[in-house]
Structures are given as structure tokens and as C-alpha cells.
Amino acid sequence: MAAKKIFKPGQTASGILDSKGGDRLKQMQANSNYNFKFIPKEKIIPNEKNKNYSQNNIEALCESIIINGLRHNLSVIPVTDNDTYRIVSGERRYHAINQMDEKTYKELFPAGIPCKVEKSSITEIDEEIMLISANHDIRETSVEEKRWEIRRLKELYETKKLSGEITNISKEIAKQLNISQRQAIKYVNAEKLIPELSDLLNQNGISLEDASKFSRLDEWAQLKIIELLSAKGSVNNEELESIKKISKENEIEKKRNQQELEKTLQLLTERDKSIEALENRIRSLEKNGQEKPETDWKEELKYVSVAKEKAEREKQRLETQIEKMKLQQKERESRHTSISDNELKRISQIAKAEQALQLYETNFSILKNSKTIIKADPDLKTRLEILKNRFDDLLAEIIP
Questions:
Q1: What averages of pLDDT result for each successive group of 10 residues across the chain (400 residues)?
Q2: CA distances from 288 to 19, 142, 303 (A)
Q3: Alpha-carbon torsion angle 305, 310, 314, 320, nearest 10
Q4: Quick one: 125 exposed, middle or buried, by C-beta within 10 A (0-12, 13-18, 19+)?
Q5: Long-range contacts (CB closer than 8 Å, 24 or more residues apart) made by 239-243
Q6: What whole-number distance in Å separates Cα of residue 370 and Cα of residue 19?
Q7: Contact 95, 58 (CB under 8 A)
């Protein structure tokens, strides 16, 4: 395909400016506020950090640059020790230009590739922040790529926060990626998702809003969310609140079981110490007991031996109890977590009951503030009396 003539700095309708004119142009650009320069391609080097971004469709991009020209200049940082420039933004454009034959390259870029030269004094952390921000601005990033950007920016800004350079990480992330701080926080929260939900977010199977909500749940609850999504394709607020409640109850039970296990382990440690003390006493009596009357030391040896046997039996009981508790804990953790139809129905019923109670609690204050009106209206008074009787019957069934 014939190259389309694109008029740009360094070219005229009749061809390339003479070298003197080109040099003047480059010097003018170099002195500009943006430190803009035309740099030969052989003096530009790739950036290792750009490997996190895909470098696909290079040939198509090369063809586009030949036809339409270079729509965005590169952004580079000078490498002072070898007179080269490291790419910050424009890795794909650089590789696309390198695919051109020499004639086309010289025709399109007679003075070199247009580049914005960043300050050479920039730190490695700031360079990578700049690289992520620049790539984000010019690329259509997927949810997965955007999550990687935010994850990496969080790591970089945590270092800057430790050094006192910044105070609010989510605010800095939002500024670099041109998103709201609230959105940045949601992306950060999404890193707490289990792999199954994380994959769904990457595939646009769940929204960022839902992902942020689900990320606050423990692993058990997130697995329940996955099963609900698999069963019915969505999770409504009632079901979410019910799962959160059950999860909280499970967490309380888990904590109680852990406390009981720790208490039993402490008792076992105490028994070990008691047995050791009794064994020491037995050895002492057997070695030095002859210094006392035979009846006395043999009687004491008898009692100490009985106490040791009792302590050993108690130790054995505690060890058995601990093994049983650990086995139960392991079974709970490895138990299949699928939601049966009955359990799904129960969760839905709990949600409806909670919603009804919440509605009643909300409206109770209205009734309370309407006492005078209700007293004066026989119909309202009768309806309230009927409601009271129905509540009494319900309470009698629930609380015998």
C-alpha cells in the first residue's frame, strides 16, 4: 500500500527540510516547556516494565501509522550513561515503527521519532507510576488489566506512604487512572475475592459494585454467593443479608470452638507439668526414702503413684478430646458447601422474615406517634387490637 503523505514537523509539501532547518526545529522543540525532541529509533530502548502490557497487533499498528501518521508521540526518559532513551509510554508504537522498512521510516520520521522527554532525575517508583498512568490513558484496558494497574499502583504508593511522600493511597490511584476515589477503593476491595468471584469480575460476570460487597464476606460466604449465582444467575439484597448473617453465626461458632480448643490445650500443658513433678517426686522418694521411716515413705510413694496414674489418665482423655476437636474442625472446613434447594428456600424465607420485621420496626414509631388519632378512630383502634391478638398468637407459638 502506498504511503500517505502526512505533513508534520520536519516535512514540507516538497519534501524534507534541509538539515539546518531540521536542526533548528529540533532545538526549538527541545527548549519548549514539554521538552519535546525528535529521537532516532536506534537511540530508543524498550522498557522492561512494559512487559505487563500486551504487545499484540503490531503489524496492524504499523500499517495504521504509515497511512494515518503517528497520532501520539512517545514518552521517554534519558539514560545518561549511554546516550539513549528508555520508553515510558509508546512501546507498541516503537515496535510498530521498527517494523517499517528503512525507506518508509526515513520518509515518515526524517528527524527521528517525536518524543516527550521526562526528567532524568525521576525515581524508579515514579517512573513506573508514570508508565502505568500513560499506558492507561492511551489503551482500552480490560477489567483484569485495570485491576493489575490498581494492584501495582497500590504497592508503589504504599512505599511512598512509608516514606511520608503521600497520605492517601486511594486518592493517588484515582488521580493517576482518572477514576473516582470511591471506584478506586472498590477495586482495592475486590482483591479480597476468592478466585472464582475474581474470575467472574474479570469476565464482567459481576459488577464492580457487587464485587466490592462480596469482598467483605469470608470465604464460606463467598462460596455461597458463587453457588447462588450458578443456581439462579443473581443474588438479591435479601439473600446477601441472610448469607452475611449465617456467616457471622458461623464465625462466632468457629471462634468459640477455637477458644475451647485453646483452653483444652492449656489443660493438657498443665497435666504434663503435673506428671513431670510427680515423676520427679517418685524418683526422689525411691532414692532418698530410706532416710525416713519405711511406713512413711512407702505410704507417700503410694499416694504419689496414684496421683500420677490419675494425671496420666486425664492427660490421655484430654489428648483424645483434642484430636476429636481438631478432626471436627477439619471436617467443618472441608465440608461440601453446596446450597441445597431446601437451604436456598430457608435463606429466602429468613430474608423475607427479616424484611417484614424491619418494615414493622420502621412503622412502629409512626403508630406510637399516632396514639391520639387511633384512640379517636374506632376502625383504627379495632385494627390495632386485631394486630395485637395476631402477634400474641404468633409469640405463643414461637415462645411457649
A1: 40 40 48 74 89 80 92 88 88 92 93 90 87 80 88 93 93 92 94 93 92 92 88 84 83 86 91 90 79 73 88 90 85 58 62 72 81 83 84 79
A2: 110, 82, 17
A3: 80
A4: middle
A5: 239/347, 239/348, 239/351, 240/213, 241/351, 241/354, 242/347, 242/348, 242/350, 242/351, 242/354, 243/217, 243/347
A6: 92
A7: yes
